[in-house]
TrEMBL record:
This is Glutamate--tRNA ligase. Signal peptide: none annotated. One of its GO terms (molecular function) is zinc ion binding. PROSITE patterns: AA_TRNA_LIGASE_I. PANTHER family: GLUTAMATE--TRNA LIGASE (PTHR43311), GLUTAMATE--TRNA LIGASE, MITOCHONDRIAL-RELATED (PTHR43311:SF2). It comes from Salipiger bermudensis (strain DSM 26914 / JCM 13377 / KCTC 12554 / HTCC2601). Belongs to the class-I aminoacyl-tRNA synthetase family. Glutamate--tRNA ligase type 1 subfamily. It catalyses: tRNA(Glu) + L-glutamate + ATP = L-glutamyl-tRNA(Glu) + AMP + diphosphate. It is found in: Cytoplasm. InterPro entries: aa-tRNA-synth_I_cd-bd (IPR045462), aa-tRNA-synth_I_codon-bd_sub2 (IPR020751), aa-tRNA-synth_I_CS (IPR001412), aa_tRNA-synth_I_cd-bd_sf (IPR008925), Glu-tRNA-ligase_bac/mito (IPR004527), Glu/Gln-tRNA-synth (IPR000924), Glu/Gln-tRNA-synth_Ib_cat-dom (IPR020058), GluQ/Sye (IPR049940). Residues 3-304 form the Glutamyl/glutaminyl-tRNA synthetase class Ib catalytic domain. Monomer.
């Protein structure tokens, strides 16, 4: 059997973190078993569904690197097929025409509430003789068993039992002939060949109702796995008060997608004590048995820590490409060709300990800044008259250096000794000269990335500028 999973978001807003994790779990499960990962846009809510939201969802999945198989399926466009199944259920006697009006249903519930009975609507038309049917609009309802139990064998939640007398006769077709979402989901999953339904546990009760359609149609049930929701650090449902919610916001903040995938995978799923892992490892290891039953808590510090580790091991060219995508998403200026070249040369000394792209780009200030540099307040203090004199004396010593790390370290060490000081005393004015900052990558790394000509030009400029 080929494993087929699906992600089925509603296009009523951005792709939120919970949805992104659901998509990731489906993607990992399918990819780890040579299966298919399908995408369906559940756009039956025409009042709230927008093309912009659909585009945002697709863009979010693209940023996360969760490529789907086949064409994107629109649920709304399949309405005729959904209605066809409802009519088939009607013909089988597994569904019936209900002529009860909304006023009658409301009156039934109010009366039941006052009498202390269940307010679950019991249609008087369930077993009515078709000859008594009026010439009036009707809904089509599924005949749910009134006795016994519906059992959901869930891969995460375990065995879940619901009494059938707690389930109503679900509407399949509204009185205007349009199919309901609950019917559409089942028909689409069946027609798309979905074998595993991995989704949020807020859909657990839906599964019991949807199973009635599978059973009535004689269709095989999918494997269910209902995953817990994500909470904020305070244990409450994740919301805007906890920070960014949409996947697009995380890209704009500057998190690498590999780090985001790693963190989302660990959010409610575990593989032993492993925290940091690659996509290949996640695909190999991921299994439904590793998903916990309790809600996961979002932790920004853990996210940043993992992102830092992924930045550190990333391929330089791929990292540059993602940085450029971040700049575009965040509405920042694009890199010039010279800046791109400089970043690629310097990536080896920029990646270490940078947890986000803004942190990496701050370290790269010496590459990206316009020259002549304007030193910040701390750097300016390091360029007093004495320090400028030292830089002026150092410049001729560097003129004949071969510009290898070993020779630069030798020249600097010898110069510091001749000055009766230690290299540490030279570092602050050199940082200020080369980067205009007090906190930078190592002086030697900056000199190697900038090259001999540019390094000497900056040191010479700082030596003759009145900044201290």
């Amino acid at each position: 059997m080929t494993v087929v999973t699906r992600f089925a978001p509603s296009p009523t807003g951005y792709l939120h973190i919970g949805g992104a994790r659901t998509a990731l779990f489906n993607w990992l499960y399918a990819r780890g078993r040579g299966g298919k990962f399908l995408l369906r846009i559940e756009d039956t809510d025409r009042a709230r569904s927008t093309p912009e939201a659909t585009a945002a969802i697709l863009k979010g999945l693209d940023w996360l690197g969760l490529g789907h198989d086949g064409e994107v399926v629109s649920q709304f466009e399949r309405a005729d097929r959904h209605a066809e199944v409802a009519r088939e259920l009607l013909a089988k006697g597994a569904a019936y025409k209900c002529f009860s009006t909304q006023e009658e249903i409301t009156a039934f519930r109010e009366e039941a509430k006052e009498a202390g009975r269940s307010t679950l609507f019991q249609s008087p038309w369930r077993d009515a003789d078709p000859a008594s049917h009026p010439d009036a609009p009707y809904a089509v309802r599924l005949k749910t068993p009134t006795e016994g139990e519906t059992v959901i064998e869930d891969e995460v939640q375990g065995r879940v039992t619901i009494r059938n007398d707690q389930l109503d006769d679900m509407i399949l077709l509204r009185s205007d002939g349009t199919p309901v979402y609950m019917l559409a989901v089942v028909v689409d999953d069946h027609d798309m060949g979905v074998t595993h339904v991995i989704r949020g546990d807020d859909h657990l009760n839906n599964a019991a109702r949807q199973m009635g359609i599978y059973t009535a149609m004689g269709w095989p049930l999918p494997v269910y796995a209902h995953i817990p929701l994500i909470h904020g650090p305070d244990g409450k449902k994740l919301s805007k008060r906890h920070g960014a919610l949409g996947v697009d916001e995380y890209q704009k903040i500057g998190y690498p997608s590999a780090g985001m995938r790693n963190y989302l995978a660990r959010l409610g799923w575990s593989h032993g004590d492993d925290e940091f892992f690659t996509d290949a490892q996640a695909i190999e290891w991921f299994d439904l048995s590793g998903i916990g039953k309790s809600a996961a808590r979002f932790d920004f510090k853990k996210l940043e820590n993992l992102c830092g580790q992924h930045i550190a091991i990333a391929d330089d060219a791929a990292l540059l490409q993602e940085i450029e995508a971040y700049l575009d998403a965040a509405g920042k200026l694009a890199l010039t060709e010279a800046q791109r070249d400089g970043l690629l040369r310097g990536m080896y000394c920029l990646k270490d300990r940078a947890k986000t792209f803004p942190e990496l780009l701050e370290k790269a200030h010496f590459i990206l800044a316009d020259t002549p540099l304007e030193p910040d307040e701390k750097a300016a203090k390091a360029l007093d008259a004495v320090s400028r004199g030292i830089l002026a004396a150092l410049t001729p010593q560097l003129q004949n250096a071969s510009w290898s790390r070993e020779e630069l370290e030798g020249e600097m060490g010898a110069f510091a000794e001749a000055q009766g000081t230690k290299f540490g005393k030279l570092a602050a004015p050199l940082r200020a000269a080369l980067a205009g900052r007090a906190v930078t990558p190592s002086v030697f790394d900056m000199m190697l990335v900038l090259g001999k000509e540019e390094s000497l030009r900056r040191i010479g400029h700082a030596a003759t500028s009145e900044t201290g």
